[in-house]
Amino acid sequence: MVDGLLLVVDDDNDILSLIKIGLEKMGLSVYSFTDPSLALEEFSKKPSDYELVISDIRMPSMNGYEFVKQIKKINPKVNVILMTAFEIEDKEFHSILPLITIDGFLQKPFTMAKLNDILKEIM
Amino acid sequence: MREYRIGALQLFREISTGAGTVYPEDIDDYEGESKREEIGNTKNQRISIKILTPTDDVASKIIDELITSTDGNNNDIQIRYVQPKYHITTATIMIIDRKISLVLEKVDDAKEEFNEAVGLSTYSTSSPTVASYVSIIENFWDQIELYEEHKAKDRLEREFINLVAHELRTPTQAVLGYMELALMEASNNDTINSEKGGYIAAAYRNALRLQRLTKDILDIARIESNTLKLSKVRLDLVEKINDAISDIRHALVADRTTTIPTKDNTNTKIEFIKPDRLIFINADGLRIQEVITNLLTNAINATRNNNSTSSITVSIQVVEGSKSNDTENGNSTCVIVRIKDNGKGIDPEIMPRLFTKFVTKFESGLGLGLYISKSIILAHGGKIWGENNKDGNGATFNFSLPLSNN
Using a CB-CB distance cutoff of 8 angstroms, which residues of chain A are in contact with residue B173? Predict the structure, then answer.
């Protein structure tokens, strides 16, 4: 269903590998980073090769909103999914949403089946 | 309006620079009668001023100005902002000390001149009048403090719940996800029915339980701290019920494939009698689906050891106007969702406490589902109730919700 590359960012290494393995088992090619700045650097090298970016929201060096904003600046066509284990405050989310188009949202903990469903929906 | 306020605050300034005292009290003497008489000419004596004002930029600016200009007098000026609910002070300015009150009524905000902006003004030295104003201000003063404390506590609670949520969800995510991967692996290489496959399946089932428990505990925390927020939109109730049923069916299938086959769940029939009209409600879709899922899960658990086929029927009834079960909103049209099962029925022992926390007759679970469901339904302005079926076979759980008008 996806031909291009996927970029996954989460500062928690266990979660990051879990999502990477899960996606690879679905037959997708995945690059993963714990540091959003490094992910951004990688993304800017070949922005049009990426089809989907999945990012955590709260990360120490750069938050997910800022990260996907940068991503969209480089390639507005790329799909974006945000995820978090925190509560999403409606106010926070709606104040950001008009500024960035987000294609999907995952509230942790989610099952791999749920991840698969949301990918099918987007692609 | 600005002139009007400045005018009033000018009076403050005169008073606070020594011409008199401003409510509520002279710091050096609160009670003493003899000293109070001297207040009128206590030039350069330290006095305390309390200002109650609605929050707005003009007021803040003028108050800042006042504080700066009277700084040299070493006065103690405290300000509290009236919360919007109590904005009665927008209409009136009161200046009160222990002996004198001056009350200025607002006439026209738009007027620039002080005497045009202000209407009836009363100046009183009568002690009953002054005392009643003093007590009004005192009450407001204390109330605002309580309100601020309450708000701060709420914020702390929310932050705490959010932190706990994160700390519970992150490891749950890892355990759940990795067990799912292990289970997929076992299915792919046909070891799912081996001993090892059994271990993985059991661990996965329990990871799912952990996920549900985390969700329930966080829901409870939000309900108890009054921070349960609803994002209400107009939505199709039939669609929500379909979603909940479809999720439950998936869960049943997953359960069947990861459980050593027993007669459990193998024969659960869920039927949805769809209404012949569209039904829209104003509700938080995820929360309503959560309620339906909770009730369906209970129905499945109640029918678990049935000798006959387990059968669950979901139906919807629209109740027009005054016939509504909802006595408080007797005149509004509402919709009732019924989930009927042919299980063991509600134990009479727990019937009166059905919707309280930690009440359950099931082997597993904390007994939080109905309590959470009730909180969600009440927050939507509906009702929820359970009863044993008249034929003596199983139970029916119902909830009502107001219908969306447009």
Answer: 15, 18, 85, 108-110
- What pLDDT score does B16 carry? 45
Residue of chain A whose alpha carbon sits nearest to that of B218 = A87
Q: Is B161 on the interface with A (CB under 8 A)?
A: yes
B323, two tokens: 């016939």
Residue B162 falls inside a structural domain: yes
> What are the two backbone dihedrals, phi and then psi, of residue B305, each rounded to the nearest 5 degrees?
-105, 25
Mean pLDDT of chain B: 78
DSSP codes, A67-105 = HHHHHHHH-TTSEEEEEESS---HHHHHHHTTTS---EE
* Preferred mutation among B170, B173, B180, B286 to probe A, highest tally of A CBs within 10 A: B173
Helix (H, G, I), strand (E, B) or coil at B76: strand
Asked if residue B377 and residue B247 are part of one domain, the reply reads: yes
The answer to whether B181 contacts A18, with C-beta atoms less than 8 Å apart, is yes
Domain containing B339: what range? Answer: 233-406
Cα dihedral A109, A111, A116, A120 sign: negative
Contact B249, B297 (CB under 8 A): no
Q: What is the CATH number of the domain that holds B186?
A: 1.10.287
Residue A110 and residue A22: Cα distance in Å, rounded? 12
A71 is in which domain, residue-wise?
Answer: 5-122
The nearest alpha carbon in chain A to B227 belongs to A89
- Give A-chain residues touching B169 at CB under 8 angstroms: 85, 108-109
* Residue B253 sits at the chain A interface (C-beta within 8 Å): no
CB contacts of B214 in chain A (<8 Å) are 109
Q: How many domains does chain A have?
A: 1
Same domain? For B311 and B377 the reply is: yes
> What ipTM does this complex have?
0.85
CB contact under 8 A, A85 and B176: no
Tens digits of per-residue pLDDT, B23-79? Answer: 333 333 333 333 333 334 444 566 777 888 777 666 677 777 777 776 666 667 788
Q: Is B181 on the interface with A (CB under 8 A)?
A: yes
